[in-house]
C-alpha cells in the first residue's frame, strides 16, 4: 500500500541551527502538507503546497519556515534558525488530485528536539 | 472558519465497555469530518470519515461515528473496548475544496483497563 515516508525519524539540534525535514509523499498525490504536534498538544496545521507554491499557511508558519519540492518526489520543510519551542513532532501529509473527500495520508513523523 | 472541539481530553473505560469520544464541529459550509487515531510513537491513521453520504459511518477496528447536523456533532463510538484501543484520538474537519487543510481537535486520550 502506498505510504508517505519521512526522514529523519528523530533529529536533535542546537538552538539556532538550520534543520531540514524530508518527506516523500504518495507518488500520484499533488497536495502536500506539514503539520506539527508539540508534546501533549494537538496536531497543528503549518502549510499546504500545490503546483509548486504555498496554497495556505497558518500563523505558526513564519519567516523561519520554508517548504520546497526540489525534485519530483521530495517535499521538504526547512527551519532556518531553530528555537526551543520548535521542538515537536512534524508530520507530512499528502492528498490526491482526484480525492473528493479531503482525506490526508500522513507519514509517521519526524521528531525534532532543539537543545 | 472551521473548528473542532473534542470534549474530554482523557477518557477511561474498562475492557468490554462502551467507548464514546465526543466531537463537535463548527463550519460555515458542509463539512467533511474525520477521526484519526495515533498509537504511541506512531503517525496518524485514518479511522473513518464522513463525506456527505451515509450519516452513520463505520470504520476500522469496530469503530463507528454518526454525523448529526442538528447537533453539529460527530461522536465516535465502539460497543466494546479492547486493550489495543488505548491511543490518542483526533477529530478533524475540512470541506470539499482541493488543498484545504484538515483542522484537528485537541485530541482525546483513551485508556482501557482490564
What's a concise summary of this model?
Chain A is an all-beta fold and 115 residues long. Chain A has strands at 5-7, 10-13, 19-24, 29-37, 43-50, 53-57, 65-68, 75-79, 88-96, 105-106, 110-114.
SSE arrangement:
The complex is a heterodimer of chains A (115) and B (114).
Chain A: E1 5-7, E2 10-13, E3 19-24, E4 29-37, E5 43-50, E6 53-57, E7 65-68, E8 75-79, E9 88-96, E10 105-106, E11 110-114
Parallel strand pairs in A: 2-11
Antiparallel strand pairs in A: 1-3, 3-8, 4-5, 4-9, 5-6, 7-8, 9-10, 9-11
Chain B: E1 3-7, E2 10-14, E3 19-26, E4 32-38, E5 44-50, E6 56-58, E7 64-68, E8 73-78, E9 87-94, E10 103-104, E11 108-113
Parallel strand pairs in B: 2-11
Antiparallel strand pairs in B: 1-3, 3-8, 4-5, 4-9, 6-7, 7-8, 9-10, 9-11
Q: What does this protein structure show overall?
A:
The complex is a heterodimer of chains A (115) and B (114). Chain A is mostly beta strands and 115 residues long. In chain A, strand 4 (29-37) and strand 5 (43-50) form a beta hairpin. Chain A has strands spanning 5-7, 10-13, 19-24, 29-37, 43-50, 53-57, 65-68, 75-79, 88-96, 105-106, 110-114. Chain A is 0% helix and 52% strand. Chain B has strands spanning 3-7, 10-14, 19-26, 32-38, 44-50, 56-58, 64-68, 73-78, 87-94, 103-104, 108-113. In chain B, the strands form 2 sheets. In chain B, strands 2, 4, 5, 9, 10 and 11 form a 6-stranded mixed beta sheet that branches. In chain B, strands 1-3-8-7-6 form a 5-stranded antiparallel beta sheet, with no helix packed on it. The radius of gyration of chain B is 13 Å and the shape is globular. The chains are: A mainly beta (115), B mainly beta (114). Chains A and B meet through strand 4, strand 5, strand 9 and strand 10 of A and strand 4, strand 5 and strand 10 of B.
Amino acid at each position: 500500500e502506498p505510504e508517505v515516508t519521512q526522514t529523519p525519524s528523530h533529529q536533535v539540534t542546537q538552538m539556532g541551527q538550520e534543520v531540514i525535514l524530508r518527506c516523500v509523499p504518495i507518488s500520484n498525490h499533488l497536495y502536500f502538507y506539514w503539520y506539527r504536534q508539540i508534546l501533549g498538544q494537538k496536531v497543528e496545521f503549518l502549510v499546504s503546497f500545490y503546483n509548486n507554491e504555498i496554497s495556505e499557511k497558518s500563523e505558526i508558519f513564519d519567516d523561519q519556515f520554508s517548504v520546497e519540492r526540489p525534485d519530483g518526489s521530495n517535499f521538504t520543510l526547512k527551519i532556518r534558525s531553530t528555537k526551543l519551542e520548535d521542538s515537536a513532532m512534524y508530520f507530512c501529509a499528502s492528498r490526491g488530485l482526484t480525492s473528493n473527500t479531503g482525506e490526508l495520508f500522513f507519514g509517521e513523523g519526524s521528531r525534532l528536539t532543539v537543545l | 472558519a472551521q473548528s473542532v472541539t473534542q470534549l474530554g481530553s482523557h477518557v477511561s473505560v474498562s475492557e468490554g465497555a462502551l467507548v464514546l469520544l465526543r466531537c463537535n464541529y463548527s463550519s460555515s459550509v458542509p463539512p467533511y469530518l474525520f477521526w484519526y487515531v495515533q498509537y504511541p510513537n506512531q503517525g496518524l491513521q485514518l479511522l473513518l470519515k464522513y463525506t456527505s453520504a451515509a450519516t452513520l459511518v463505520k470504520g476500522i477496528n469496530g469503530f463507528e461515528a454518526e454525523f448529526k447536523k442538528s447537533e453539529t456533532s460527530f461522536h465516535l463510538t465502539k460497543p466494546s473496548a479492547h486493550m489495543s484501543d488505548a491511543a490518542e484520538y483526533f477529530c478533524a474537519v475540512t470541506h470539499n475544496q482541493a488543498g484545504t487543510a484538515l483542522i484537528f481537535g485537541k485530541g482525546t486520550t483513551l485508556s482501557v483497563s482490564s
